[in-house]
Amino acid sequence: MQEITKTKWQQPKALFKVKKLPWEFFLILITISVFILSAYASPYFLDPWNLSDATFNFVEKAIVALPLAMLIICRDIDLSIASIIALASVAMGFAAQYGFGIEMIIIIGISVGMLCGLVNGWVVTHFDIPAIVVTIGTMSLFRGISYILLGDQVLKDYPEGFDYFGQGYIYWVFSFEFLLFLIAALFFYFLLHRTNFGRRCYAIGNNPTAAFYSGINVKRHRLILFVIVGALAGVAAVLLTSRLGSTRPTIALGWELSIITMVVLGGVNIMGGAGTIAGVFIAVFLMGIVTFGLGLLNVPGIVMSIIIGGMLIAVIATPVLIKKFSKGN
Amino acid sequence: MKKLFTSREALLCALILVMTLAVGAIADDFLSISNLLSVYNDTSILIILALGQMLVIITRCIDLSVAANLALTGMVIAMINSAFPDFPVPLLILFGALLGLCMGMINGLLVWKLGIPAIVVTLGTMSIYRGIIFLLSDGAWVNAHEMSKVFMQIPRSTFIGIALLSWISVIVIASFYYFTRSSRTGREIYAAGNSPTAAFYTGIDVGRSQFIAFSISGMLAGLCGYLWVSRYAVAYVDVAAGFELQVISACVIGGISIMGGIGSVAGCVLGALFIGVINNALPVIGVSPFWQMAISGAVIVLAVIASSKAEKKSGRIILKSAALPISKQATLEQPTSKQAT
Q1: B110: which chain A residues are within 8 Å (Cβ-Cβ)?
Q2: What is the pTM of this model?
Q3: What does the angle CA A302 – CA A257 – CA B258 come to, to the nearest 5 degrees?
């Protein structure tokens, strides 16, 4: 038994603790080297406007990655995030068509997101079903509803001024989206690392039964997290819809996998119990810089997916391999 | 006898029958034997993939890379066929299955030897395999006119009036029935998924069982790569994109527990047939195909709610703490220092 616990499922984070090197340090190192390499490889990389443009490609995903990290720390997962974004976007599109104002559209978008999160959380906690199965189902369900409502049509009657959220700049090269992401990152940092609520996430992720007996309302806690993820997916829907200026049922298709990749790359243990917002924050930039740098070098998107997929496995496998080889000596 | 009527398989069977009859009441042609056979033929690939996925899920893992694996082998085979039309097709099929096996083994080895959670491994290999197709084909399509006649004819040719594609799936079902019930390896896979700790003490290598499950799933994906490409007579980068979720859905509807250790071949096949019948029935009764996704989503949610109750009754819940995955126990024994401070 001792042997399997030693060799199986060692999490990279725990391994790095042995060497007194935090996972975040490792990530920052990679991020900086990729940054320098990209700057060296392309003369256009260091232009502040180019860098600012690059942030648009990952900020919306990153905003959902933050609460999802907390959810995964709690041993849950939400695969329906991209579908929630689609459904929220469709709801906003219809709200805009009926002539609602900007505030109302945003409220509708975020509430639809929260409602979807509530459905996920309720089914998961009330019936005690693994989150991965439920959200595979709701992933089809939510996007399916968007398809039923919209078919092959496009909604694009958004009121004037709505484009600010996805396209506007607050100061110089700093876009509204990017600042919102920074604020969200700070908020989730405090929520996860500085509040009781956050500590409970770790407690539940490490041992739900023990957490229950120490007086944590585990079900309510998980339900709240699902709703938070839904709400932030709603926020991402507002930003994305505003940036694109139109809604189709295929909006944000396949995002769930890249968002989960961000979270896992950030050192969050997919089996629950460990992970930091700082790690996710750095991983988001790592992915953003890799994508942008390769894009400047004319590498097609699908080839980038090879690199990101390889990075995901390599980054998780390297510490395990280091441990194995150092053990052999 | 009572068990026979209340089991998940019987329920699914009844549901599929009722659905088929209801659709038949609206459109008579639906119930004709040739149409029913073609519905089954349509579902064959899903059935084969779902069976492979079943083994993986039973060992408490998940294989998200099946569709990418299918697309990659399909593309490689189609390219070989268009470049060397005289290369014997049976050898080509064998090659496809071997290629798929290799990709499945890569997944399995990463899970077994490095202990990386399966969802992370297959998330990574999914995008890698899909990307390699682009590198190989440069984004180009291999179309019907570039494929040899024999290549496209094999799954279409009939034997006793039934297409060979259906026969292949029947053979796979039969061998799975034997494999999961009567072979030692098959039983080990169930044991490893049911309780890894107990399996370990029994002398079963849990990681090896997971590796075998991944290899089989990969091999079947490779076989389906050929079947898919020759059936639809086209190969391109996005072949079967997102199909892995339909495969997992078929398993979930069929009552295979994502917590591992539970699931039967019959349930899995019925789960796949359920999806197949819905997909084929919607256009017949004039429902817009846009409804299909939402319906299968709702069915998955309802199916897992139903099976959660069934699993609770069997008393598995008492053993829940003992049946925690090893990983959880590992994290319990070694709390990271950040949480301790």
Answers
A1: 313, 317
A2: 0.82
A3: 130
